[in-house]
Amino acid sequence: MLLATQLERVFILKDKGQDIRLTDPEPRWSVEAVMNFYANMYPILTTAKASAPQIKDDGVEYKFESVMGTKG
Hints:
- By secondary structure, this protein is mainly beta.
- The chain has one helix and five strands, in the order ββαβββ.
- It is elongated, with a radius of gyration of 14 Å.
- The mean pLDDT is about 90.
């Protein structure tokens, strides 16, 4: 017998060398909507992009990465 289960979405924000794990506020929202939701707490998300999803530890993991360059 096959069982189909929906995998939990997990969002990872890379900020200052640390991975910050963000929970999914609403499973029906798009990835961009989740990014906009968390942008109030993490302003770096206003210039970030989401990576392609990866299945890891029984969840679907998205990484938010800043597209800002470094000066110097």
